[in-house]
Input
Amino acid sequence: MERVDHFGLSPCPFCGGKVFFHGHAGDDNCHGCHHIECTQCKAMIDMSETADPANSAFALTDLRRRIAKFWNRRANSAGGDHAHDRQP
Output
């Protein structure tokens, strides 16, 4: 069964593969349902504390929507706008 992405998740930043949320969107008690996994390289991440530090999401769908917003952000790799790229 193919997983459907209802949150517009960007591809994996490591390999460019398709990513998905674990579990089913209707299961609010699903442990790990807020984890994102890549179908190709199997990278997995839990961004729930970043997306919802106050643990204020009332439903899994709300939490996933917040996580997707953070997941889809990408650093400007061409701009060198990272702390480790800056010269003293």
